[in-house]
Design brief:
Oligomer: single chain
Bound molecules: glutamic acid
Strand content: 5-15%
Helix content: 40-55%
Structural class: alpha/beta
Distance between the termini: 92 Å
Strand order of the largest sheet: 4-5-8-9
CATH class of one domain: Mainly Alpha
Protein backbone atom coordinates (compact mmCIF):
# COMPACT_ATOMS: atom_id res chain seq x y z
CA UNK A 1 0.00 0.00 0.00
CA UNK A 2 1.32 3.42 -0.86
CA UNK A 3 1.11 5.60 2.19
CA UNK A 4 3.55 8.28 1.30
CA UNK A 5 0.78 10.80 1.59
CA UNK A 6 -0.86 11.88 4.82
CA UNK A 7 -4.50 10.90 4.69
CA UNK A 8 -6.95 11.27 7.51
CA UNK A 9 -10.64 10.85 7.99
CA UNK A 10 -13.52 11.45 10.27
CA UNK A 11 -16.13 8.79 10.33
CA UNK A 12 -19.35 10.12 11.80
CA UNK A 13 -22.38 7.90 12.14
CA UNK A 14 -25.43 9.83 10.93
CA UNK A 15 -27.46 9.13 14.05
CA UNK A 16 -27.61 12.72 15.28
CA UNK A 17 -26.66 16.28 14.37
CA UNK A 18 -22.94 17.12 14.18
CA UNK A 19 -21.69 16.84 17.75
CA UNK A 20 -19.15 19.31 19.09
CA UNK A 21 -16.85 16.37 19.91
CA UNK A 22 -16.96 15.13 16.32
CA UNK A 23 -16.42 18.67 15.06
CA UNK A 24 -13.34 19.03 17.26
CA UNK A 25 -12.04 15.64 16.04
CA UNK A 26 -12.66 16.82 12.49
CA UNK A 27 -10.71 20.01 13.22
CA UNK A 28 -7.68 18.17 14.61
CA UNK A 29 -7.70 15.88 11.58
CA UNK A 30 -8.08 18.85 9.28
CA UNK A 31 -5.23 20.85 10.85
CA UNK A 32 -2.85 17.91 10.84
CA UNK A 33 -3.76 17.09 7.25
CA UNK A 34 -3.42 20.64 5.94
CA UNK A 35 -0.04 21.19 7.57
CA UNK A 36 1.17 18.06 5.80
CA UNK A 37 -0.44 18.77 2.45
CA UNK A 38 -2.50 15.67 2.92
CA UNK A 39 -6.04 14.65 2.12
CA UNK A 40 -8.94 14.80 4.54
CA UNK A 41 -11.79 12.38 4.04
CA UNK A 42 -15.30 12.34 5.45
CA UNK A 43 -16.78 8.89 5.69
CA UNK A 44 -20.40 8.57 6.65
CA UNK A 45 -20.73 5.37 8.65
CA UNK A 46 -24.30 4.52 7.86
CA UNK A 47 -24.29 0.74 8.04
CA UNK A 48 -26.78 0.78 10.91
CA UNK A 49 -29.88 1.17 8.76
CA UNK A 50 -32.29 1.65 11.62
CA UNK A 51 -30.48 4.50 13.34
CA UNK A 52 -28.91 6.24 10.35
CA UNK A 53 -30.92 9.09 8.86
CA UNK A 54 -30.37 11.21 5.77
CA UNK A 55 -31.30 14.38 7.68
CA UNK A 56 -28.43 13.77 10.11
CA UNK A 57 -25.99 13.20 7.26
CA UNK A 58 -27.17 16.48 5.73
CA UNK A 59 -26.72 18.25 9.05
CA UNK A 60 -23.21 16.86 9.57
CA UNK A 61 -22.07 17.91 6.10
CA UNK A 62 -23.76 21.29 6.28
CA UNK A 63 -22.21 22.18 9.63
CA UNK A 64 -18.73 20.96 8.65
CA UNK A 65 -19.02 23.26 5.67
CA UNK A 66 -20.17 26.14 7.88
CA UNK A 67 -17.09 25.57 10.06
CA UNK A 68 -14.94 25.66 6.94
CA UNK A 69 -13.70 22.08 7.35
CA UNK A 70 -13.94 21.09 3.72
CA UNK A 71 -13.18 17.52 2.80
CA UNK A 72 -11.25 16.23 -0.18
CA UNK A 73 -13.55 13.28 -0.61
CA UNK A 74 -16.81 11.98 0.78
CA UNK A 75 -17.76 8.33 1.14
CA UNK A 76 -20.81 6.51 2.42
CA UNK A 77 -20.43 3.04 3.83
CA UNK A 78 -23.91 2.13 2.61
CA UNK A 79 -22.60 2.42 -0.95
CA UNK A 80 -19.66 0.09 -0.35
CA UNK A 81 -21.32 -3.22 0.52
CA UNK A 82 -19.66 -5.06 -2.35
CA UNK A 83 -16.22 -4.05 -1.14
CA UNK A 84 -16.83 -5.35 2.38
CA UNK A 85 -18.27 -8.55 0.95
CA UNK A 86 -15.02 -9.24 -0.88
CA UNK A 87 -13.06 -8.97 2.36
CA UNK A 88 -15.51 -11.07 4.34
CA UNK A 89 -15.30 -13.80 1.69
CA UNK A 90 -11.53 -13.62 1.79
CA UNK A 91 -11.49 -14.11 5.56
CA UNK A 92 -13.90 -17.02 5.28
CA UNK A 93 -11.94 -18.63 2.46
CA UNK A 94 -8.67 -18.36 4.31
CA UNK A 95 -10.18 -19.75 7.47
CA UNK A 96 -9.63 -16.55 9.46
CA UNK A 97 -13.36 -16.22 10.01
CA UNK A 98 -16.27 -18.64 10.05
CA UNK A 99 -20.03 -18.73 9.72
CA UNK A 100 -21.74 -19.45 12.97
CA UNK A 101 -25.33 -20.58 13.36
CA UNK A 102 -26.78 -19.22 16.55
CA UNK A 103 -29.88 -18.01 18.28
CA UNK A 104 -30.41 -14.29 18.00
CA UNK A 105 -31.03 -12.53 21.27
CA UNK A 106 -32.44 -9.51 19.47
CA UNK A 107 -34.75 -11.65 17.36
CA UNK A 108 -36.13 -13.64 20.29
CA UNK A 109 -34.30 -16.88 19.80
CA UNK A 110 -34.63 -17.03 16.02
CA UNK A 111 -31.88 -18.96 14.23
CA UNK A 112 -29.41 -16.70 12.46
CA UNK A 113 -26.01 -17.10 10.85
CA UNK A 114 -23.31 -14.56 11.67
CA UNK A 115 -19.67 -14.18 10.66
CA UNK A 116 -17.18 -14.47 13.51
CA UNK A 117 -13.45 -13.76 13.46
CA UNK A 118 -11.19 -16.54 14.68
CA UNK A 119 -9.44 -14.82 17.52
CA UNK A 120 -5.81 -15.93 17.83
CA UNK A 121 -6.09 -14.98 21.53
CA UNK A 122 -2.91 -13.01 21.78
CA UNK A 123 -1.54 -9.83 23.22
CA UNK A 124 -1.92 -6.86 20.92
CA UNK A 125 0.32 -3.89 21.34
CA UNK A 126 0.08 -0.62 19.47
CA UNK A 127 1.71 2.79 19.56
CA UNK A 128 -0.47 5.75 20.09
CA UNK A 129 1.19 9.02 19.12
CA UNK A 130 -0.21 10.78 22.19
CA UNK A 131 -0.35 7.95 24.68
CA UNK A 132 2.60 5.81 23.76
CA UNK A 133 2.47 2.01 23.96
CA UNK A 134 -0.91 0.48 24.68
CA UNK A 135 -1.23 -3.24 25.32
CA UNK A 136 -4.32 -5.43 25.31
CA UNK A 137 -4.96 -9.07 25.90
CA UNK A 138 -7.52 -9.94 23.26
CA UNK A 139 -8.44 -13.33 24.75
CA UNK A 140 -11.47 -11.96 26.50
CA UNK A 141 -12.86 -10.65 23.21
CA UNK A 142 -13.49 -14.22 22.07
CA UNK A 143 -14.40 -14.94 18.48
CA UNK A 144 -16.26 -11.70 18.00
CA UNK A 145 -18.87 -11.08 15.31
CA UNK A 146 -17.60 -9.04 12.35
CA UNK A 147 -20.67 -9.23 10.10
CA UNK A 148 -24.36 -10.04 10.43
CA UNK A 149 -24.00 -11.94 7.17
CA UNK A 150 -21.90 -11.69 4.05
CA UNK A 151 -23.70 -8.56 2.93
CA UNK A 152 -23.91 -6.80 6.26
CA UNK A 153 -20.58 -6.00 7.83
CA UNK A 154 -20.44 -4.63 11.35
CA UNK A 155 -18.61 -1.53 12.45
CA UNK A 156 -15.13 -2.99 13.14
CA UNK A 157 -14.83 -4.76 9.83
CA UNK A 158 -16.13 -1.83 7.79
CA UNK A 159 -13.74 0.59 9.54
CA UNK A 160 -10.71 -1.62 8.94
CA UNK A 161 -11.55 -2.25 5.30
CA UNK A 162 -12.29 1.40 4.63
CA UNK A 163 -9.20 2.75 6.36
CA UNK A 164 -7.15 0.34 4.27
CA UNK A 165 -8.92 0.95 0.96
CA UNK A 166 -8.88 4.70 1.49
CA UNK A 167 -5.19 4.57 2.41
CA UNK A 168 -5.69 6.33 5.71
CA UNK A 169 -2.26 7.03 7.21
CA UNK A 170 -3.36 8.40 10.59
CA UNK A 171 -6.48 7.57 12.54
CA UNK A 172 -7.16 10.56 14.73
CA UNK A 173 -10.23 9.91 16.84
CA UNK A 174 -11.70 10.19 20.31
CA UNK A 175 -10.17 8.17 23.13
CA UNK A 176 -13.46 6.34 23.52
CA UNK A 177 -12.25 4.30 20.54
CA UNK A 178 -9.10 3.02 22.26
CA UNK A 179 -10.93 -0.10 23.35
CA UNK A 180 -12.03 -0.73 19.75
CA UNK A 181 -8.49 -0.65 18.44
CA UNK A 182 -7.43 -4.22 19.48
CA UNK A 183 -10.38 -5.72 17.61
CA UNK A 184 -9.57 -3.64 14.57
CA UNK A 185 -5.92 -4.68 14.73
CA UNK A 186 -6.91 -8.36 14.89
CA UNK A 187 -8.99 -7.88 11.74
CA UNK A 188 -6.09 -6.08 10.01
CA UNK A 189 -3.77 -8.93 10.90
CA UNK A 190 -6.25 -11.53 9.69
CA UNK A 191 -6.44 -9.67 6.40
CA UNK A 192 -2.69 -9.18 6.27
CA UNK A 193 -2.90 -5.42 5.84
CA UNK A 194 -0.80 -2.61 7.25
CA UNK A 195 -1.60 -0.82 10.44
CA UNK A 196 -2.26 2.90 10.28
CA UNK A 197 -0.89 5.24 12.94
CA UNK A 198 -3.17 5.87 15.88
CA UNK A 199 -3.85 9.14 17.64
CA UNK A 200 -6.51 9.00 20.34
CA UNK A 201 -7.48 12.46 21.47
CA UNK A 202 -8.94 13.34 24.88
CA UNK A 203 -12.68 13.67 25.22
CA UNK A 204 -14.40 16.97 25.86
CA UNK A 205 -15.67 17.05 29.44
CA UNK A 206 -18.01 19.29 31.41
CA UNK A 207 -16.79 21.39 34.35
CA UNK A 208 -17.45 18.46 36.69
CA UNK A 209 -15.47 16.16 34.43
CA UNK A 210 -18.41 14.17 33.13
CA UNK A 211 -18.96 13.52 29.43
CA UNK A 212 -20.53 16.47 27.57
CA UNK A 213 -24.24 15.95 27.54
CA UNK A 214 -27.19 17.98 26.37
CA UNK A 215 -28.14 18.65 29.96
CA UNK A 216 -25.08 20.77 30.65
CA UNK A 217 -24.47 22.54 27.39
CA UNK A 218 -25.52 22.52 23.81
CA UNK A 219 -23.78 19.58 22.15
CA UNK A 220 -24.64 20.07 18.50
CA UNK A 221 -22.88 22.58 16.29
CA UNK A 222 -26.27 23.65 14.91
CA UNK A 223 -27.32 24.85 18.34
CA UNK A 224 -24.21 27.01 18.63
CA UNK A 225 -24.84 28.34 15.16
CA UNK A 226 -28.47 29.17 15.99
CA UNK A 227 -27.44 30.92 19.19
CA UNK A 228 -25.24 33.17 17.15
CA UNK A 229 -21.71 31.97 17.57
CA UNK A 230 -19.24 32.97 14.88
CA UNK A 231 -17.77 29.93 13.10
CA UNK A 232 -14.18 31.19 13.35
CA UNK A 233 -14.59 31.71 17.10
CA UNK A 234 -15.84 28.16 17.53
CA UNK A 235 -12.93 26.84 15.46
CA UNK A 236 -10.44 28.82 17.54
CA UNK A 237 -11.98 27.67 20.81
CA UNK A 238 -12.27 24.03 19.74
CA UNK A 239 -8.62 23.97 18.68
CA UNK A 240 -7.66 24.75 22.26
CA UNK A 241 -9.84 21.96 23.67
CA UNK A 242 -7.08 19.48 24.28
CA UNK A 243 -4.28 21.22 22.41
CA UNK A 244 -2.18 24.15 23.47
CA UNK A 245 0.47 26.03 21.55
CA UNK A 246 2.86 26.10 24.51
CA UNK A 247 2.61 29.90 24.64
CA UNK A 248 0.02 32.34 25.99
CA UNK A 249 -1.34 33.03 22.56
CA UNK A 250 -5.07 32.34 22.38
CA UNK A 251 -6.37 33.98 19.23
CA UNK A 252 -5.56 32.03 16.09
CA UNK A 253 -6.79 32.30 12.55
CA UNK A 254 -7.30 29.00 10.77
CA UNK A 255 -4.04 29.52 8.87
CA UNK A 256 -2.15 30.15 12.08
CA UNK A 257 -3.67 27.01 13.51
CA UNK A 258 -2.57 25.01 10.49
CA UNK A 259 0.90 26.44 10.97
CA UNK A 260 1.21 25.99 14.72
CA UNK A 261 -0.90 22.95 15.57
CA UNK A 262 1.05 19.89 16.56
CA UNK A 263 -0.23 16.47 17.42
CA UNK A 264 2.56 16.03 19.96
CA UNK A 265 1.14 18.93 21.96
CA UNK A 266 -2.25 17.32 22.41
CA UNK A 267 -2.82 16.58 26.08
CA UNK A 268 -3.73 13.18 27.47
CA UNK A 269 -6.27 14.34 30.03
CA UNK A 270 -9.85 15.34 29.24
CA UNK A 271 -10.48 18.80 27.81
CA UNK A 272 -12.80 20.85 29.99
CA UNK A 273 -15.46 22.74 28.11
CA UNK A 274 -15.98 26.27 29.42
CA UNK A 275 -18.88 28.16 27.90
CA UNK A 276 -17.67 31.47 29.41
CA UNK A 277 -14.38 31.06 27.64
CA UNK A 278 -16.13 30.27 24.38
CA UNK A 279 -18.24 33.40 24.86
CA UNK A 280 -15.08 35.41 25.40
CA UNK A 281 -13.68 34.11 22.12
CA UNK A 282 -16.92 34.94 20.37
CA UNK A 283 -16.82 38.52 21.64
CA UNK A 284 -13.28 38.86 20.39
CA UNK A 285 -14.38 37.69 16.95
CA UNK A 286 -17.43 39.95 16.89
CA UNK A 287 -15.09 42.88 17.56
CA UNK A 288 -13.21 42.06 14.37
CA UNK A 289 -16.25 41.85 12.12
CA UNK A 290 -17.03 44.69 9.72
CA UNK A 291 -19.75 47.22 10.61
CA UNK A 292 -21.92 45.98 7.74
CA UNK A 293 -21.78 42.38 8.90
CA UNK A 294 -22.49 43.39 12.46
CA UNK A 295 -25.46 45.44 11.36
CA UNK A 296 -26.84 42.50 9.37
CA UNK A 297 -26.47 40.08 12.26
CA UNK A 298 -27.93 42.43 14.85
CA UNK A 299 -30.90 43.18 12.63
CA UNK A 300 -31.51 39.47 12.05
CA UNK A 301 -31.67 38.95 15.78
CA UNK A 302 -34.05 41.80 16.58
CA UNK A 303 -37.52 40.66 17.63
CA UNK A 304 -40.41 41.22 15.23
CA UNK A 305 -42.12 43.69 17.54
CA UNK A 306 -39.20 46.08 17.15
CA UNK A 307 -38.79 45.55 13.41
CA UNK A 308 -42.53 46.06 12.88
CA UNK A 309 -42.72 49.30 14.86
CA UNK A 310 -43.70 52.22 12.67
CA UNK A 311 -40.84 54.16 14.26
CA UNK A 312 -38.23 51.51 13.43
CA UNK A 313 -35.54 52.56 11.00
CA UNK A 314 -32.12 51.24 9.99
CA UNK A 315 -30.47 54.59 10.63
CA UNK A 316 -31.18 54.46 14.35
CA UNK A 317 -30.12 50.83 14.53
CA UNK A 318 -26.83 51.75 12.86
CA UNK A 319 -26.28 54.46 15.45
CA UNK A 320 -26.77 52.09 18.39
CA UNK A 321 -24.49 49.36 17.08
CA UNK A 322 -21.61 50.40 19.41
CA UNK A 323 -23.98 50.30 22.38
CA UNK A 324 -25.33 46.87 21.45
CA UNK A 325 -21.89 45.54 20.56
CA UNK A 326 -20.69 46.42 24.01
CA UNK A 327 -23.31 44.22 25.61
CA UNK A 328 -23.28 41.04 23.56
CA UNK A 329 -21.15 37.93 23.39
CA UNK A 330 -23.30 36.06 20.89
CA UNK A 331 -25.78 37.37 18.34
CA UNK A 332 -28.78 35.98 20.18
CA UNK A 333 -27.91 38.26 23.12
CA UNK A 334 -29.45 40.99 20.97
CA UNK A 335 -32.82 39.34 21.42
CA UNK A 336 -32.23 39.09 25.16
CA UNK A 337 -31.44 42.80 25.45
CA UNK A 338 -34.52 43.59 23.41
CA UNK A 339 -36.71 41.36 25.58
CA UNK A 340 -35.39 43.10 28.66
CA UNK A 341 -36.80 46.29 27.18
CA UNK A 342 -33.44 47.91 26.55
CA UNK A 343 -33.91 48.63 22.86
CA UNK A 344 -37.45 49.89 22.18
CA UNK A 345 -36.84 53.35 23.56
CA UNK A 346 -34.34 54.12 20.85
CA UNK A 347 -37.18 53.88 18.36
CA UNK A 348 -40.18 55.27 20.24
CA UNK A 349 -41.03 57.49 23.18
CA UNK A 350 -40.75 55.52 26.41
CA UNK A 351 -43.65 55.09 28.82
CA UNK A 352 -42.83 55.63 32.47
CA UNK A 353 -44.15 56.84 35.80
CA UNK A 354 -43.50 60.54 36.36
CA UNK A 355 -41.87 59.88 39.76
CA UNK A 356 -39.19 57.92 37.98
CA UNK A 357 -37.76 61.26 36.87
CA UNK A 358 -36.67 62.00 40.44
CA UNK A 359 -33.08 61.42 41.36
CA UNK A 360 -32.54 59.34 44.56
CA UNK A 361 -32.37 62.17 47.09
CA UNK A 362 -34.71 64.57 45.31
CA UNK A 363 -38.41 64.97 45.96
CA UNK A 364 -39.52 68.08 44.07
CA UNK A 365 -40.72 67.35 40.53
CA UNK A 366 -41.12 71.08 39.87
CA UNK A 367 -37.37 71.51 40.18
CA UNK A 368 -36.95 68.66 37.68
CA UNK A 369 -39.27 70.46 35.24
CA UNK A 370 -37.35 73.71 35.72
CA UNK A 371 -34.00 72.00 35.12
CA UNK A 372 -35.26 70.17 32.05
CA UNK A 373 -36.50 73.43 30.59
CA UNK A 374 -33.08 74.92 31.12
CA UNK A 375 -31.50 71.89 29.42
CA UNK A 376 -33.84 72.30 26.47
CA UNK A 377 -32.56 75.86 26.13
CA UNK A 378 -28.98 74.64 26.10
CA UNK A 379 -29.83 72.02 23.48
CA UNK A 380 -31.67 74.52 21.27
CA UNK A 381 -28.39 76.41 21.02
CA UNK A 382 -26.44 73.46 19.63
CA UNK A 383 -26.73 73.16 15.87
CA UNK A 384 -28.04 69.85 14.46
CA UNK A 385 -24.69 68.80 13.04
CA UNK A 386 -22.90 69.48 16.33
CA UNK A 387 -25.35 67.52 18.44
CA UNK A 388 -22.81 64.97 19.64
CA UNK A 389 -22.23 63.34 22.99
CA UNK A 390 -19.04 65.36 23.62
CA UNK A 391 -20.58 68.67 22.66
CA UNK A 392 -23.71 68.05 24.73
CA UNK A 393 -21.62 67.16 27.75
CA UNK A 394 -19.49 70.26 27.36
CA UNK A 395 -22.48 72.58 27.10
CA UNK A 396 -24.42 71.30 30.11
CA UNK A 397 -21.62 70.18 32.40
CA UNK A 398 -21.19 73.39 34.42
CA UNK A 399 -24.92 73.66 34.97
CA UNK A 400 -25.07 70.01 36.12
CA UNK A 401 -22.18 70.56 38.51
CA UNK A 402 -23.86 73.61 39.96
CA UNK A 403 -27.32 72.09 40.43
CA UNK A 404 -26.08 68.66 41.43
CA UNK A 405 -25.06 66.13 38.81
CA UNK A 406 -27.60 63.46 39.76
CA UNK A 407 -30.43 65.96 39.93
CA UNK A 408 -29.76 67.18 36.41
CA UNK A 409 -28.43 64.16 34.54
CA UNK A 410 -30.75 61.51 35.94
CA UNK A 411 -33.98 63.17 34.73
CA UNK A 412 -32.51 63.70 31.26
CA UNK A 413 -31.50 60.10 31.01
CA UNK A 414 -34.81 58.92 32.41
CA UNK A 415 -36.87 61.18 30.16
CA UNK A 416 -35.01 59.78 27.15
CA UNK A 417 -35.09 56.08 28.09
CA UNK A 418 -37.73 55.56 30.77
CA UNK A 419 -35.31 53.05 32.31
CA UNK A 420 -33.31 52.91 35.54
CA UNK A 421 -30.40 51.57 33.58
CA UNK A 422 -29.32 52.81 30.17
CA UNK A 423 -26.33 54.43 28.52
CA UNK A 424 -25.46 57.93 29.78
CA UNK A 425 -27.67 60.88 28.78
CA UNK A 426 -25.08 62.35 26.41
CA UNK A 427 -24.85 59.17 24.38
CA UNK A 428 -28.62 58.76 24.37
CA UNK A 429 -29.17 62.32 23.20
CA UNK A 430 -26.68 61.91 20.39
CA UNK A 431 -28.32 58.71 19.17
CA UNK A 432 -31.83 60.16 19.34
CA UNK A 433 -30.83 63.41 17.67
CA UNK A 434 -31.65 66.94 18.64
CA UNK A 435 -35.30 67.00 17.61
CA UNK A 436 -36.31 63.75 19.27
CA UNK A 437 -34.29 64.51 22.39
CA UNK A 438 -35.96 67.87 22.88
CA UNK A 439 -39.38 66.38 22.18
CA UNK A 440 -38.83 63.73 24.90
CA UNK A 441 -37.70 66.36 27.39
CA UNK A 442 -40.84 68.39 26.64
CA UNK A 443 -42.94 65.29 27.21
CA UNK A 444 -41.35 64.83 30.61
CA UNK A 445 -42.11 68.43 31.54
CA UNK A 446 -45.70 68.03 30.36
CA UNK A 447 -46.10 64.99 32.58
CA UNK A 448 -45.03 67.09 35.57
CA UNK A 449 -46.90 70.35 35.07
N1 LIG B 1 -18.27 5.87 13.40
C1 LIG B 1 -17.58 6.05 14.61
C2 LIG B 1 -18.30 7.06 15.47
O1 LIG B 1 -19.22 7.68 15.04
C3 LIG B 1 -16.15 6.53 14.40
C4 LIG B 1 -15.25 5.45 13.96
C5 LIG B 1 -13.77 5.81 13.94
O2 LIG B 1 -13.43 7.00 14.02
O3 LIG B 1 -12.97 4.90 13.83
O4 LIG B 1 -17.97 7.23 16.61
Amino acid sequence: MKKSQIKTRIAPSPTGDLHIGTARTALFNYLFTKQNNGKFIVRIEDTDKERSKKEFEDNILEELKWLGLDNDKLYRQSERTDIYKKYIEKLLKEGRAYLSKEESKAKMGKQIEVVRLKNPNKKVEFDDIIRGKIEFDTTELGNFVIAKNINEPLYHLAVVVDDYEMEISHIIRGEDHISNTPRQILIQEALGIDRPKYVHIPLILTQNRSKMSKRDNATSISEYRRKGYVSDALINYMALLGWNPGTNKELFTINELIEEFSIENIQKGGAIFDIEKLNWFNREYIKKISEDEIFKNIKQNLPKDILNMSEYNDKILKKIIPIIKDRISIWSDVLKIAEEGDLDYYFKQPKYKTEGLLWKTDSDLNIVAKNLLKIINFFENISNDKFSSDEIKKIIWDFAEKEGRGSVLWPIRYALSGRNKSPDPFQLAEVLGKKETISRLHNAINKIV
